[in-house]
Every structure is written in C-alpha cells, then in structure tokens.
C-alpha cells in the first residue's frame, strides 16, 4: 500500500463519523497535501469543549490541548480546506479590530467562510432584539459563533441559548479567553516552556481583563509572578487569593528595575483611571519600556495584548525582546485550533 | 416557664426556628411580613441550648414557597422551617443553600448581562462559610454583605 493510501485511511479513521469516506477522500484530494497529512499523521485535534466562554473553564490539560493543536495548525499557515462548507458568524456587538480580523483570517485559512456584523447599530439589536433571539437566529445561518458584547456574562448567556459552539471574543470587562490562550501559546512557542518561568505583569493590574485571565491560567503552571503597577491599580485581592491558594509565589514591586523576569507582559494604563490628568502624567513615565529599560530587563521577552499607546517605545520593536507583533500573529493558529476542534475536526 | 411559651403557639402556619441571632428582621423583610395581614410573632435572641441564642418567626396561615425558603437560607443558613397544622408540627426541614441559586436575587454587578436581557439570575454556591456565591454569567463573586444588600434591594 502506498504511503498516500496509508495516510488517507488513517485520515478517514479519524474523520468525523458523519462524513462519508467519499467526502474525506474528496476533501483530501482537494485540500490537504500529502505532506501536510504526513505532518499531522498520528496527531489528534483534541476536542476542547463545547464552547469557549471563560478561561476559568480551562484546566491545565485543556490549555495544553489547545496549545498543541495550535502548533499543528501552524502547519496550515498557507491555508487548507478542512472546514470547507462551514460558516463562522462573527457577532460583534461592539467594535474590535484584532479579535474579529484574526477570527476571520483563521476561518478563511481553514477553508470556511464568515458572515457577521461588527457593530450592533447595523444589527437587529438596534431594533430591540434580545441577545438570545439574535443568537438563535445566527445559529440557523452558521455552524459556530464568535461574539463580543459590552455586557459581562453575555457569552455565557448566548451559550445557554445556542446549540452551536460559542466562542467568547470578549464580554464587557469579564473574559477574553482566546487572548489568554494566545498569550500562553506565544510564551510556550518562544521559550519552549511555561513551567519554571519568572513572569512580570505590568500596567493597570486592577482593571485589566487580560492580566486577570492570564494570572488565572498561569496558576496551573509552576511559575513565579511579579507585579508592577501604579498605586491604586494593583492586582485585586481575589486574584492574589487564588494564586496563594494554588501555591503560586508572587511579589509586588515598585520599580521597573526591581523586575527579574523571563517574560514581561505589559498592558496599557488608561488615563481615565486617574482622578486627574496631572496624576496620570506623573506616573506614566515610570511604566514605560524604553531602550534604557533593557539594561535591567536583559533577555526578557516583552508581550503586550495591543493596542499600545506609549507604554513601549517603538525603538524596542526591532530588538529581540519585542514579541508583541508575533504574539498578535499567534492569534491565528490558536483561533484556528479552537475553530477546528469546536467543529469536531479530527485527524 | 417553658421557653416555647415566650411567644404563643400557632394553630396553622409556619414556624421558622433557629434563625441566626439578629437576622429575624431580614427574614421578615424577605417574606414581606410588614404587609402580611395574619398574625406574625417575631422573637429575637431567644435562648437556645443548641446554638446559644436564636431568632424565631411564627406566621399564621402561611406556607412558604421554595423560592422564599431558598432566600431565607442565604441570610439564615441554620434556620429550620416547621409546618404546623392544628398545633402539631407536621413537617420540619432545615433550610439548605441550593448549589444553584436561581432567580432569587439580582447580581451586584451593574454591567451584568442579567440586568439587560430577559433571563433569571443564576449563582453558583462557592462556599458556605464564609458565604460566597458566584454569578453564573458575569462571574462576579458576592459575599455575605453583597447578598444581604441585593436581597434587600429586591424587596
């Protein structure tokens, strides 16, 4: 038996039970190259879960599965058609650039197509439709839904109403789980491990959704955390309690120079969090990464969920420390992995 | 004098016993007893061999709904609900904080989706002592003080 047939048969074995062999063979001949199949042979696209709503639903194994799947998806960087015929609905009740574009890009690279809206003004919500009704409508048109909504908990509510998988692309100030997964992927992809790392979180740690979720996810790993934030914007007590409960050592530091880290996760400090502009101007310089900062940051990799304002000087961009644009790029394989596994695609 | 005689026995109705001392008025508020027409007796800080002191509420001619019992459990987790018929206790149950608390108090997070969409609130019980419940939707944790405030607001 030729290697091609061997690969095809394995492929068929793993293919969705609802697919006929003919579908699978057609699919193979139309999309995946033999080389790709060789790359993937023996690897599973693990089922993640029914929906992706909150990082709190993920245990370490779930996270590791997604990261593994994302690395498989890098093999499809030039596109495939494993989700041909599948439709993603992007329900963006509030604007987003990166999240929406990267989900669209991920679905397109998987051979699927995308429908949706990017602001609620152009949807039936403007006419007073409930979220549940919008979701029940969308699931008739699409196989999977990614949504962003200004209200905390909207994604969980949508998942209750829907029969198709829901991915939370951000619900108010509550959760943005795919951002956290791509943050973790970036760290693991670059440093080959998460365990054993010293990770610094810097900026607005009080209101920052990304740092809360990241801390929670990192608590499954053997890491040491350092926090650097302006007075009044420190990491909330309940997050620190969670970390203590899980035995994660953490330390609040007051100066950039105090950071001794392998990874520094920088977030934006919003002007409006301060009682007056003067107060903001006073502290913002202390939370800026410049070329001089690299003297004590050494080889530390710098991540940022973007958009940045002035917390990382553009002169850092060309240094080996800067990882934030790669990080944004890794959003694609991570989201491809989630789309594929939620839609039950297996090899 | 027997302790039980401090407030008069009722013929038919409900006796809520072993209420955490000082919580009787909160329970009364939950049950809307201010506007209740039949006789209601409230005893506060009554001696109790079991827990030192306790509060008791006796309500004539009324049985409690599950929703009411669940709400009582959040402010008086050790209370017992006795159904009285013809001066006899025919049923006695300890209240129990349900693992899922549905539709009995609003979420304290003003941006929670439950304030904007037609859906019952839902909380998951995280811890009894200290009391902590988490909104199923927005994930906000409510402490005992938050719960007390939200229950009062609901009334």
Description:
Helices cover 40% and strands 13% of the residues of chain A. Chain A contains 13 helices and nine strands. Chain A has helices spanning 3-14, 21-30, 34-40, 60-73, 98-109, 131-141, 154-161, 177-191, 209-218, 237-245, 277-284, 294-297, 324-342, and strands spanning 87-92, 113-117, 144-149, 166-171, 198-202, 224-228, 250-253, 263-266, 301-303. A five-stranded parallel sheet of chain A has the order 7-6-5-8-9. Chain A has a four-stranded parallel sheet with strand order 2-1-3-4, sandwiched between helices. The two termini of chain A are 20 Å apart. The relative contact order of chain A is 0.14. Chain B has 155 residues and is α+β, with helices and mostly antiparallel strands. Helices cover 18% and strands 35% of the residues of chain B. Chain B is built from three helices and nine strands, in the order βαββαββββββα. In chain B, the strands form two sheets. Chain B has a five-stranded antiparallel sheet with strand order 2-3-1-4-5, with helices on one face. A four-stranded antiparallel sheet of chain B has the order 6-7-8-9. In chain B, a hairpin with a 3-residue loop joins strand 2 (40-48) and strand 3 (52-60). Chain B is elongated. Chain B starts with 12 loop residues before the first strand and ends with a helix. The model of chain B has no long low-confidence stretch (mean pLDDT 89). Chains A and B meet through helix 7 of A and loops of B.
